[in-house]
Amino acid sequence: MSLRLAIALPVILALACSPAVTTNPDFRQADPNATTSPKRCLQIARIYRSEIVDDDTILFHMRGGAIWQNQLPQRCYGLRMQGGFGYTTPLDRLCDLDLIQVLEGSRSVCGLGRFEAYEPPRDLEANAVDAGDEDGPTR
């Protein structure tokens, strides 16, 4: 084995085993042979509910308690006001940059951004526990 291959192989293996994509049960990598940053996809069956924060941000609450944030690259007019969106996909997943459509009113079609792990602000978690919600805001 050449010295270059011996040095490069551990680096390649470490990148291929990135925990956000390969070990997280919420994600399924869209193209495992991609040479650019991997496209992240949420498995539709694992999405418990979606929460529209504003016309730019959607939180996806997953079965098991994880929350994934999608910051849309452009404002999606009417998303918050109408309170719902739909999507069509031939696959069992919703991926970065997929299109969504506002259900009523404007019927805007908008592109998703990248899915990123979301941690609720600490003060929201404390308020949820104080209000008697022992499971906190993630369920």
Strands, helices and their partners?
Blueprint: H1 3-16, H2 19-22, E1 41-43, E2 47-54, E3 57-62, E4 67-71, H3 79-82, E5 85-86, E6 93-95, E7 99-102, E8 109-111, E9 115-117, H4 122-130
Antiparallel strand pairs: 1-6, 2-3, 3-4, 4-9, 5-7, 7-8
Structure write-up:
By secondary structure, the chain is of the alpha+beta class. The chain has one domain (25-138). It has helices at residues 3-16, 19-22, 79-82, 122-130, and strands at residues 41-43, 47-54, 57-62, 67-71, 85-86, 93-95, 99-102, 109-111, 115-117. The strands form 3 sheets. A 4-stranded antiparallel β-sheet has the order 2-3-4-9. A 3-stranded antiparallel β-sheet has the order 5-7-8, with no helix packed on it. The protein has a two-stranded antiparallel sheet with strand order 1-6. The radius of gyration is 18 Å and the shape is globular.
Weakly predicted, low-confidence segments? 1-23, 131-139
| Helix/strand structural class | alpha+beta
Specify the overall morphology: globular
First-last Cα distance: 51 Å
Task: Give the averaged pLDDT, no decimals.
Answer: 74
Q: What about the largest sheet?
A: 4 strands, antiparallel
Q: Could you give the order of strands across the largest sheet?
A: 2-3-4-9
The fraction of residues in strands falls at 25-35%
Number of strands: 9
Which range best describes the helical content: under 10%, 10-25%, 25-40%, 40-55%, 55-70% or over 70%? 10-25%
Question: Count of helices?
Answer: 4
SSE arrangement, N to C: HHEEEEHEEEEEH
Rg over C-alpha atoms, rounded to the nearest angstrom: 18 Å
